Amino acid sequence: MTVSELIEFYKNTNEFNKLRPNSRNLYTLMITSAVRVFVPKSQTLFGQLKLENVTPTYTDKLYAELKATKGQHRATFVCKIMRKIWFVGKRHGLVDTNPFERMGLEGLGDRAVLWQPYEVYQFIKTADELGFKALGTITMLCYHLCQRPGDMRMLKWSDYDGHSFRFKQEKTNTEVVVPASPQLQDRLSALFNDLPCESIYISPCESTGKPYDRFLYSQHFRKIRKAAGLGDHLQLRDLRRTGATEMAEA
User: Fold this and answer.
1) 45, 75, 144, 239: which has the highest count of C-beta atoms within 10 A?
2) Closest CA to 145 of 169, 173, 129
3) Which pLDDT tens digit goes with each residue over 190-227?
């Protein structure tokens, strides 16, 4: 059995299917980036490697290669996912050992990046000018409501009564009610008048009419951020922390 075959087995187990859709998509992204990696001095892609050849020495080299080419966060996350896949394989008798155990992975530390208010509104302004009003709206929603991008891109007009939002957070399944600021209310009023009448989502992708997926909004986000002259360290997920920090300080 190859690594890719073990991964396909894992994807058909309850351990994978019980994950929330967003988590399954993220796992798939991480796995895809891993199976296409060549470890130095190896002529075989990781995904095509026979399971008996995945040794602790190999996993250390895989981690080092991912860290050098994809970054520490990606490398650590991939190895944690692989550790889970091998654990499932071991439980089902497909492998005897788990080479991803006890790797001594480096801690990632807490991310502490905060946007400045002028950066938020410069990004929104640039998004609107480039024809990505939906992303500008998602940005304001994340910032004003202090919520995750995944929840904000899925918001429906039925979740909004003109004054506040009521929805369940995807990650925690917690129902929250959050008031909309006057500025956000004004933007949504103008946005509602511009959208096709059949649109049920507040910020649908301009090209598909459906909610943005994480890959497309990340791609467009980088394009807008560059056009706005903002630093590469800023990420959409940081807006939740930024808004919460400003509220705490206030």
Assistant:
1) 239
2) 169
3) 888 776 656 789 999 888 888 988 778 888 999 999 99
Q: What is the pTM of this model?
A: 0.69
Mean pLDDT in the chain?
Answer: 91
Contacts (Cβ under 8 Å, ≥6 apart) of 84: 10, 15
pLDDT on residue 199: 77
